[in-house]
Amino acid sequence: MRIGIDVGGTNTDAVLMDGMEVLSSTKTPTTANVTDGITAALRTIIADSGLDVAKLDAVMIGTTHFTNAVVERRRLQPTACIRLGLPATACLPPLVDWPGDLADVLGRHTYLAHGGHEFDGREISPFDPDEIRRIAEDIKQNGVNAIAISSVFSPVNAAFEEKAAEVVKQVMPEANITLSSTIGRIGLLERENAAIMNACLRELAMKTVSGFKAALAAMNISAPFFISQNDGTLMNADFAADHPVLTFASGPTNSMRGAAFLSGLKDAIVVDVGGTTTDIGVLQQGFPRVAAMAVNIGGVRTNFRMPDTLSIGLGGGSIIATDPVRVGPQSVGYELTSKARVFGGEVLTTTDIAVAAGQAKIGDRDRVSGLDSGLVTSVQDRIEEMVNVSVDRMKTSATPVPVIVVGGGSILIQREIEGTSEMVKPHHYAVANAIGAAIAQVGGETDKVFSLAEMGRDEALAQAKQEATDRAVSAGADADTVEIVDVEEVPLAYLPGNATRIMVKAVGDLVGG
Amino acid sequence: MRLLDESNIEDIALGAAVLGTGGGGDPYIGMLMARQAIRDYGPVELFDLDELEESDLVVPTAMMGAPTVMVEKMPNGDDIVNAFESIGKYLGKPIRATMSIEAGGLNSVVPIYVAARLRLPMVDCDGMGRAFPELQMVTHTIHGISATPFSMSDERGNTVLMETVNNNWTETFARSVTVNMGAMAMIACYAATVKQLKEAAVHGTMSKAETIGQTIRRARVQEEDPVNTVREAVGGYMVFKGKIGDVERRTEGGFAKGDAYLEGLDEYAGKQLQLSFQNEHLAVRIDGEFKVTVPDLIVLLDIDTGEPITTEGMRYGYRVAVISMPCTEKWRTPEGLALVGPRYFGYDVDYVPVEQRYG
């Protein structure tokens, strides 16, 4: 049996699952220190289900805690960044495009050193251990303990980053070091940004993860626990403590994965209707389609593989304007149960319209019985149009696809959506995100430039697949279950030798899960 | 003369993405370089050609290479300065200013970095008025200005200087040197006097990019109809509104080629548009008939935001407006059309200026 927990901005949801079956679920308010909310959710779930905690195989947690720390500029450690690439890259040093307040919080400790590789693996300049030692001594003198190390084309060859880490450890054995090659993909500034964010979050991550451990121990749960990452796969607790940045945007991923699980569909559009917004995403082979564009987090540019979601201002709390008819984007949000008309408030919301139309039986229907039926219809028309346009925009082809509707505001979606083959509203739709966490698998990926003229396409692909598989296994996947789920080849313009960028992703079931 | 500061740079980069007509490279890295140099060395003087002496020598600067490499192995900064200074050294003459060779995309902003570092002026003109995929596709070529002396520098301090018999040979050699330099090189070329540029260059293109960028930024804030606002600002024509359907892509001879198909929306409902591209958008056919081709500019804008959409960024479901802007008159001459007209890119059709069909 497994417990899945999703720690969102407003609610902490938890589910207990036995294999494919959902035994129990709960929603509790998220607390400032996160751990208390988790403890409360666990207590409810255990009490409701009468669970014998000794029978638990694993606990999975999805959290926005680390994203929020960056966005709020709180609980971040002063961090140094060493980049290996001189004489290249000198005109754009680390932190170059960061918001000033965040760069100040981290302390602007940036260093450029020799090293780095060309796209084809040649060295830009040799690695110089003495240079790194001098830098490490300077960092030590400044009292900084978190260090990010980046190197040009480290996704192709990570050797210099690893060598630099060894030298730094000789000077500062206690330093907490993040290598960019373990975090991100091609695109030096974006990968380095992610490594720096990871380094500054490490201390918080260690504290948070031990807080989670303590919460589980307090419930006498001895099962291992995992944390979900942005691509819908899991990290074990120790790996997560070292790679907090990988949790960014795991929330939408979990809700889409949960939708896939609940509906049994692997290729579909997911419409997740919350209180304020509706997020629309695309499932491909059971995983969210990822965005191609750079993603900003707290003002910092990254190239994480975030789910490609379209967010529109439509939710259960969206406020209705009547002349002319408009829906949202303003919302009463978490105050729905006091401000909406059916709950005795004065604000006309989408939920009131749904109740008036007989789509839902919540609150006091008499309070909306006097609504003009023309208004109800035109609001429904407007909602239908908003959903139709957005779903159509996210589709990958003109072929009709199934659509899965999840989230607390699902009652708003009643009519058929254009260009779709069927509409599925699965049971337990309101806790799809916690379910997504509970069913997550373990993955590994690789992203490198290969010269196909030298090694041939088959060998390059085999090598990339092996590397992705190895990464999945070292992250905790059962080697017998690992499958390649995504292969992308991009031929590079201008380059000789048929240079091709190959990205591979592998996933497998958790060992013993 | 006026001064370019940080805020001008961001507008120019945004406008350059429109003039990039779907290609030209992401201006992000170039924008950061220019912004950083202005922070370190102060604002850059932007001159009109008329404000300089006719005998003054101007040398354009640019980055050349694979976009994937540019985002990983960024320049040193000295490299592009070396490329620029080696031309003056070779010619034995002082160089008065630098300029952009390509106002569309990345290379609109790269010369601002050089100008800031060397405290030299930048000239408000370029050699394309847009973006094109090959080196010889500049208005300088029409007017007999040689690409050489052509210098290429890397971050190690290497500089390769070449003289060639014509601009096509320059392109050939430059490609192989670029690869040896790590698939990216900083270049300086097409040295010309102000007198030559008055005839040969496309005037006012930096200011034009800036105006476009400003317009998009304001339209975003004021929630006006951004597409129409941008169309008016660039003096363009509305060609189509539609939704992107299929996008077919292929790589040929080192170029990203393909076709996108759009289904008409609103007053264009029932019509189908075929958009052909090779790094940049090249030709528009509506219901099988050629409507707009190079060298006129074909720009796709997101209907909701007015943001330009690149050839790589085109995806099923995007709702876009297709607008077209007249190219410079220089491209409409027989010599210009031989270099960049529809037939050069393999379309067996005569060029018809956009305003004749949509004006």
Low-confidence regions of chain B: none
What is the residue-averaged pLDDT of chain B? Answer: 92
User: How is the main sheet of chain A built?
Assistant: 6 strands, mixed
Beta-strand residue percentage of chain A? 25-35%
Strand order of the largest sheet of chain B: 16-15-14-13-12-18-17
| Overall geometric form of chain B | globular
N-C termini distance of chain A: 8 Å
Number of strands of chain B: 18
Physical arrangement of strands within the biggest beta sheet of chain A? 3-2-1-4-9-10
Could you tell me the strand content of chain B as a percent range? Answer: 25-35%
Helical region count of chain A?
14
Count of separate structural domains of chain A: 3
Count up the helices of chain B: 12
CATH topology of the largest domain in chain A: Nucleotidyltransferase, domain 5
Q: Considering residues with a beta carbon less than 8 A from a beta carbon on another chain, report the largest interface and each chain's count.
A: A-B, 41 and 42 residues
Order of helices and strands of chain B: EHHEEHHEHEEHEEHEEHEHHEEEEEEEHH
Radius of gyration of chain B: 19 Å
What is the CATH first-level class name of the largest domain in chain B? Alpha Beta
Overall SS class of chain A: alpha/beta
Mean pLDDT of chain A: 88
Can you characterise this structure?
The complex is a heterodimer of chains A (513) and B (359). By secondary structure, chain A is of the alpha/beta class. Chain A folds into 3 domains: 73-206, Rossmann fold, CATH 3.40.50; 265-428, 2-Layer Sandwich (Nucleotidyltransferase, domain 5); 441-508. Chain A has helices spanning 35-49, 65-72, 100-106, 129-141, 159-171, 188-218, 237-242, 250-263, 336-339, 350-356, 373-394, 432-438, 452-455, 457-474; strands at residues 2-7, 11-18, 21-29, 58-63, 79-86, 109-114, 146-151, 176-179, 225-228, 234-236, 268-273, 278-284, 287-288, 295-297, 300-302, 310-312, 318-322, 325-331, 401-406, 420-424, 442-451, 483-491, 499-508. Chain A is globular, with a radius of gyration of 25 Å. The relative contact order of chain A is 0.12. The mean pLDDT of chain A is 88. Chain B is an alpha+beta fold and 359 residues long. Chain B folds into 2 domains: 2-205, CV3147-like domain (CV3147-like fold, 3-Layer(aba) Sandwich), CATH 3.40.1610; 227-358, CV3147-like. Chain B is 33% helix and 27% strand. Chain B has 12 helices and 18 strands. In chain B, strand 14 (272-278) and strand 15 form a beta hairpin. Chain B is globular, with a radius of gyration of 19 Å. The relative contact order of chain B is 0.15. Classes of the chains: A alpha/beta (513), B alpha+beta (359). Chains A and B meet through helix 6 and helix 11 of A and helix 2, helix 3, helix 7 and strand 12 of B.
